[in-house]
Specification:
Blueprint lengths: L8 E5 L8 E8 L6 E8 L2 E8 L7 H18 L4 H16 L9 E7 L2 E7 L3 E6 L2 E4 L18 E7 L3 E5 L1 H4 L4 H8 L4 H11 L11 E8 L2
Antiparallel strand pairs: 1-2, 2-11, 3-4, 4-5, 5-6, 6-9, 7-8, 7-10, 10-11
Helix pairs in contact: 4-5
């Protein structure tokens, strides 16, 4: 059994890979306060990826994002939930964060990957996409942008179970809002995972070297 977690960024790979070996590369960069969070966990051949973006302008956004992402990957390491199960857990988390005085509100995308398939749930404008030679699939196209997790009234939308074909990209709106989908599709498929992540971040970097918003990106693919 192997569990790997990365909040700040870097590579996550099984040390002793099972048949469904995967590799991920993640990076999180501050535009201002850096209220984005990344968490990735693995147990056996089941991966759980969570990306959250704390609501700016509200107290406790960063704390909400951190709590949400950590809670989701910890749960995913313990068990496999179906899409409806993830929606139910996001609703429960919504109520838990609402009564936690330390926490504000946050977006949240959680994706599980196992046996060549992926599924999950989302709230807000962070997103999950599949990129490959056949084009780009927006897994979170139907999600509800508001209310957010922590409001007490969020409406999670399921990511239906489907084959993992190509690369899986999970990111906050610091990338998705400022880069066209055609650019994301091309760059996410270019080079190795680390090179692709760096290219995506460069695509939303201003000439001054600054970012318009915090950016969190996780990119993963099957190995071998």
């Amino acid at each position: 059994m192997e569990i790997t977690r990365s909040e700040g960024g870097g590579e996550c790979t099984q040390v002793e890979p099972p048949s469904a070996w995967m590799r991920f590369w993640s990076r999180r960069i501050a535009g201002t306060a850096n209220e984005d969070r990344i968490e990735v966990s693995c147990r056996g051949d089941r991966w759980t990826i969570a990306v959250a973006d704390g609501a700016g302008g509200l107290a406790g956004g960063a704390a909400a994002a951190r709590s949400a992402a950590i809670a989701m990957v910890a749960l995913g390491a313990e068990m496999e939930l179906d899409p409806d199960g993830w929606c139910q857990r996001l609703r429960e988390l919504d109520r838990e964060l609402e009564v936690d005085r330390r926490c504000g509100e946050t977006t949240l995308v959680v994706v599980q990957v196992s046996d060549g398939e992926l599924w999950g749930a989302s709230v807000g404008d962070s997103g999950a996409l599949l990129v490959g030679p056949g084009g780009l699939v927006e897994l979170t196209a139907a999600q509800r942008r508001k209310p957010l997790v922590g409001s007490g009234s969020c409406t999670p939308v399921a990511i239906g179970r489907r084959a993992l074909s190509g690369r899986l990209l999970v990111a906050t709106d610091g990338l998705l809002k400022y880069a066209p989908l055609t650019t994301i599709n091309a760059l996410a498929r270019s080079g190795d995972l680390r090179e692709a992540v760096e290219a995506l971040i460069l695509a939303v970097t201003l000439p001054s070297g600054n970012l318009q918003d915090d950016v969190a990106v996780v990119l993963g693919e099957h190995v071998g």
